[in-house]
UniProtKB/TrEMBL annotation, chains A, B:
<protein>
    <submittedName>
        <fullName>MarR family winged helix-turn-helix transcriptional regulator</fullName>
    </submittedName>
</protein>
<dbReference type="Pfam" id="PF12802">
    <property type="entry name" value="MarR_2"/>
</dbReference>
<dbReference type="InterPro" id="IPR036388">
    <property type="entry name" value="WH-like_DNA-bd_sf"/>
</dbReference>
<feature type="domain" description="HTH marR-type">
    <location>
        <begin position="1"/>
        <end position="133"/>
    </location>
</feature>
<dbReference type="InterPro" id="IPR000835">
    <property type="entry name" value="HTH_MarR-typ"/>
</dbReference>
<keyword id="KW-0238">DNA-binding</keyword>
<keyword id="KW-0804">Transcription</keyword>
<keyword id="KW-0805">Transcription regulation</keyword>
<dbReference type="InterPro" id="IPR036390">
    <property type="entry name" value="WH_DNA-bd_sf"/>
</dbReference>
DNA sequence: GATTATTCATTGCATTTGCAATAACTTAGT
DNA sequence: ACTAAGTTATTGCAAATGCAATGAATAATC
């Protein structure tokens, strides 16, 4: 049953190559676009939470977020209660670019599953959901 | 339908983190173990073929293979017909370590799909196969 | 058969990556 | 209240990464 884990890996790497190429012009290569999308959709996560939600190493995530803050895509805010936490929000530039990121993700996603019927797509979605927990 | 592409990405990154940690002691981190497994199973691919089969950048793949050759895991052979090609084979060390890599991949794979029934696993496998081409 | 276009391996270089370690802070246990 | 254990963000550093470019070999086209 290796095919599953192998196919999943190949699809991810292929997708990342294309998406990074697409968003390099915006300074959002190296998976940086992921952070903008996720932060837009779920604002206020702290750094570690954000990193865990996309399964990326925390130190890598930290540096990418820093860069995105410097570039005006994201914004950090200290948590009021817990002084260790820094929560992440989109800044103007991040909000402005979200629709484009979203559209491209949709396009990529649609293209990926274009060989499947609608029922098969639903099936696949449900099966994968069982894997992530 | 984003969930599909997002879940697939998260699963891949999580899997890679664990597998790299497992095989660092053998000098097979950074996805290096993938090359040994694939080469063992399909000997004689040329470098570009091998890279494409796992969807990894060719220059990265090239350097990883070089390192694996230096470390005694793989072996390169010039193609007789086409002087551009260098074909990849496992060396002693690669063959020796294959069973362990294989077992770990099986373990990881089994654990990943452990929430699914056998029929669901078959379904998932078939659905994913449709995505890769 | 000469020329053009592809395809391959390889290198240069700047950037990214991630393990390991640290300091600040919070939680749990006594 | 105090201590120990766990969690967070952060930095250092060596190694990996990947885009761009090059040269060599082959394939395609004229």
């Amino acid at each position: 049953m290796f095919e599953i884990i192998r196919d999943i890996g190949a699809i991810t790497r292929q997708t990342e190559i294309k998406t990074n190429a697409e968003f390099r012009r915006l300074g959002l290569a190296n998976n940086a676009f992921i952070y903008v999308i996720r932060t837009y959709e779920k604002p206020g996560m702290f750094l570690g939470q954000l990193a865990d939600s996309v399964q990326i190493d925390r130190t890598t995530a930290f540096r990418t977020v820093q860069k995105l803050v410097d570039n005006g895509y994201l914004r950090l805010e200290d948590d009021a209660k817990d002084k260790r936490l820094r929560r992440v929000y989109v800044a103007q530039k991040g909000a402005a670019v979200y629709p484009e990121l979203h559209a491209f993700e949709k396009h990529t996603s649609d293209r990926l599953v274009s060989q499947l019927t609608v029922e098969e797509q639903t099936q696949l979605k449900q099966l994968l959901a069982k894997l992530v927990y």
